[in-house]
Design a protein that fits this description.
The chain is mainly α. It has 8 helices and no strands. 39% of the residues lie in helices and 0% in strands. α3 packs across α5 and α4 packs across α7. The chain is globular.
């Protein structure tokens, strides 16, 4: 996957503020603990970078290696791990996302089929899926290559990831391998383009690569300059000293 191709499936949050206001108005009269916005809030990465979920060195190395094959470093920007995507993932797995706060996880669990246009249903949380998936990925590498996934050659790592993506590799019976690949791909993209306060997109490298000026107060001065290179430096949500 070429670096700029990762942008093709990323949506642009146009009209996010009106949608949030609509949600708030619709939630009037509901108990406070049913407010959805709190559960959707991402978790800022802790200062100091101490792992909370990916505490095993082998897990961090496996995630770093996989993420760096999905978004490798090149002349346009740093790799995923260099941009902090592993720290981003760790922080999110430690919060409401990792705990599956917004997921329906009760039965019945129905695999469905293409004719039903049904996505897989997971009883496990994202945190549990990573714990199971990373162990299965490492076991597969040890079984097929007699070494850790992180120590494989890039082309060997690519072959495994490609097999996971197209369904020709099954890591373990308890792992939906293709869905686990899709989860990793989604999370590495999120980490690369999220605000730096969440641990990824270090030095706003992802934003600089695509020319996104960041979390500025407003853009009224530039609203009529569509398509121009405004030459604006990105601004993060992180407070300045």
């Amino acid at each position: 996957m070429k670096r700029r191709e990762i942008l093709s499936s990323l949506g642009i949050a146009v009209g996010a503020v009106p949608a949030a206001k609509l949600l708030a108005s619709e939630m009037q009269g509901f108990p406070q603990d049913m407010a959805l916005d709190q559960a959707f809030m991402p978790v800022p990465a802790p200062q100091g970078g101490k792992p909370q979920v990916l505490v095993r060195d082998i897990d961090r190395r496996t995630v770093s290696a996989a993420f760096d094959r999905l978004i490798p470093g090149d002349e346009l920007g740093p790799s995923a791990s260099e941009a902090g995507c592993v720290d981003f993932l760790d922080a999110q797995l430690a919060g409401s996302f990792g705990n599956g706060a917004m997921l329906y996880r009760s039965g019945p669990q129905a695999p469905g089929g293409d004719e039903l246009m049904q996505k897989p249903q997971f009883i496990g949380t994202p945190r549990e899926r990573y714990e199971t998936g990373l162990r299965a990925l490492e076991a597969h590498a040890q079984r097929t290559h007699r070494t850790s996934f992180a120590d494989l050659k890039p082309e060997q790592q690519d072959a495994i990831l490609t097999g996971m993506e197209n369904g020709t590799i099954e890591l373990a019976p308890e792992v939906n391998t293709k869905a686990f690949f899709e989860l990793m791909l989604s999370n590495v993209r999120e980490g690369y383009f999220a605000d730096p306060m969440y641990g990824g997109n270090k030095d706003m490298a992802g934003w600089k690569m695509i020319g996104f000026p960041g979390a500025r107060y407003d853009y009224r001065l530039y609203a009529d300059r569509t398509g121009e290179d405004l030459g604006l430096e990105p601004v993060s949500l992180i407070p300045k000293d």
